[in-house]
Amino acid sequence: MTKQIHLAAHFPGVNNTTVWSDPAAGSHIEFSSFARFAQAAERGKFDFLFLAEGLRLREQNGEIYDLDVVGRPDTFTVLAALAAVTDRLGLTGTINSTFNEPYEVARQFATLDHLSGGRAAWNVVTSWDAFTGENFRRGGFLAQDQRYERARTFLETVLELTGSWRGDEIVADKDSGVFLRDPQAGSFRHRDAHFDIAGRFDVPRSPQGHPVVFQAGDSEEGREFAAASADAIFSRHSTKDAGQAFYADVKGRLARYGRSRDSLLVLPAATFVIGDTDAQAAELAHEVRRQQVSGQTALRFLEQVWNRDLSGYDPDGPLPEVDPVVGEGHVAQGRAQVRMYRDPVATARQWRELAAEKGYSIRELMIEVQSRQTFVGSPGTVAASIDDLVQSDASDGFILVPHITPGGLDPFVDTVVPLLQERGVFRADYEGTTLRDHLGLPPVGVPDA
């Protein structure tokens, strides 16, 4: 059976995907940028807009990491404002389960779901990062098994709170206003190793019952958490072979939780460069990669593996002959830094071999290994590639990350979406009003088929 493709849009922070030197690039903090981006996604009939989270500016060599200098506005504030300028687009926010409390998060998401008419979603994440933890009263960090256990009970508690109201528990009276029919409405009591709370939840049941739940972990613990609890899992595996392996693994975990294969969507992040022809797109993609990785940026990337100050090296010269420094301390501080390099010495050896084979300088090597371009080609080529990956069970769709903000989504919406619609694999219009409708998920409280 032909699968329907799910599409979403990620509003990027300032990072090495974004080409902020391009004259077309705009603000990452002014509301007009968020509004334009969201409205383009809604014009394309996308499922949802996605905001990542940054709780502290990254640092390198004791200085603010230059690609992060603009920061990140508060997620709930931005999504609530976007609810007023969109009608159907889902609104997904990344909220950390390590540094927040269930009552507050439940209340914020229930409110967003009401304000948006049932379009709220929560990307549940954890944090291993003591550097980020310094911003919070608990400080420090949790070990991986503890942080996923906290995330599990955090989510469980939030769903208990949002589910503490049933649909028939309030009635409106013209004389006295809204009052409770059931005196137990909203009451809760939760006690476990992480939380001991009791009271009355003060936001009535929202249109979706609770927000759609996303998860973004690729570890064993993250995959299992998603299989048990999430409606969708974000993935970094956007090639066919890697995508099919991840897809089969995650979907294969669902049965032991009494869930069907359709109850969890697999959505990799994907970048794109579109041209009138494949050749033009390839030429543009090469230029975009050079804009994304300047000489200074190349050195910053290299330092994340070498764990030493490399500012004295020529980015157009060869890789350092010295090996990486291995230890607990690191020149890079902040979430999403360096953790992908489990064995920096082995990584350095592989990079030296690649640089020798291709004759790469430091910058050329970093452009090669840091490339994030998933789809490059004409609109027809990109549409065919996306359709092939979805139909071959490498994914259920993609979260698109443009390299220009806020207008970078427009070429995809205007040229690729119509071709997917012609293929009959993407909606011509929204058929429902809630995000659960868009994702094909059953209403809350209805078991999987």
TrEMBL record:
The keyword Flavoprotein applies. Residues 22-392 form the Luciferase-like domain. It comes from the Bacteria. Keywords: Flavoprotein, FMN, Monooxygenase, Oxidoreductase. SUPFAM superfamilies: Bacterial luciferase-like. FMN binds at residues 94, 148, 219. GO terms for molecular function: monooxygenase activity; oxidoreductase activity, acting on paired donors, with incorporation or reduction of molecular oxygen. Gene3D superfamilies: Luciferase-like domain. NCBIfam families: FMN_nitrolo (TIGR03860). Belongs to the NtaA/SnaA/DszA monooxygenase family. PANTHER family: ALKANESULFONATE MONOOXYGENASE-RELATED (PTHR30011), C2H2 FINGER DOMAIN TRANSCRIPTION FACTOR (EUROFUNG)-RELATED (PTHR30011:SF16). This is FMN-dependent oxidoreductase, nitrilotriacetate monooxygenase family. It comes from Geodermatophilus sabuli. The lineage of its organism: Bacteria, Bacillati, Actinomycetota, Actinomycetes, Geodermatophilales.
